[in-house]
Amino acid sequence: SENIFTDLLLSFSFRKNTRHILADGSADTLYCLNGVRVLSIAWIVLGNVYGILYQDPELVDNHVSAVKMTQTWWMQLVINTTLAADSFFVLSGTLGAYNFLKFKTKAGKNEEKDLRKVMSLKEYFFMIVHRLVRIFPCYAVLLMLGTNLMPYLGRGPRWSSDIENVKVCKRNWWSNVLFISNFYDPDNMCLPHTYYLSNDFQFFLLSPLILIPLLINPKLGFTVIGFFLALQIMVVCGLNQGINGNVLKLRQNNYWSLIYVKPYSRIGVYCIGLGLGYFLFVCDRQMKFRK
Q1: Is the pLDDT of residue 110 over 50?
Q2: pTM
Q3: What does DSSP assign to residue 72?
Q4: Which residue, among 39, 28, 40, has the nearest Cα to 98 in the 3D structure?
């Protein structure tokens, strides 16, 4: 118990954590993905800063200039910022597949053909627990800030309207905790941007349906990936036929609640990441790219 207490205290050590963050990492680290993360985050920040030009035009003083700006070629980067979130789903799937296949290969289970031996229910349970331990503490702090402390963190003429989501959080915070906020009353979601975590966790729960076939029979695994890709395309196209929605008007025609935040609109992208993770695993990261 003393060692556990010591390790717990050391987990808050500035020196230890700084050294860990700046370390080169293990031989299995996919360094290129860090660059993808940085570029994707920069893209999202750019879109959220300038997205006001077409999402809330009443807040812009010069409407004529705003309209002209949205018609420039570089503004297309802003208008299509919603695609940046998909890059994180690809990254999540890539790392999930790559790490899973690496672990199974090292464990010597890659030769198993029995699904129950490849992954037991106990192993699946501990995978979920490990995932929750990694993401839930920070997520819980964020929910606490959004539910209780946000009203005290700013002020101004628009602050009262900007923190309207606090009331929603007090009512629907539990759906975030259960990672079902994208299904339960999505139009009144606590911290709407956290729809990503709900989707990502739901994909994580479903990932063994693809990872296990990829391990024991890659052709079957890629067939399942193709199925989910086709499913996403057909479902999204079918639903959008009835509402004629688009990302420029997220909150209109139920596009947000019916399509944008739902897992069936993102599962194909996540599956692409799983396929990429398998590809990197098979190639053992031996591909060389010109600088």
Answers
A1: no
A2: 0.83
A3: S
A4: 28
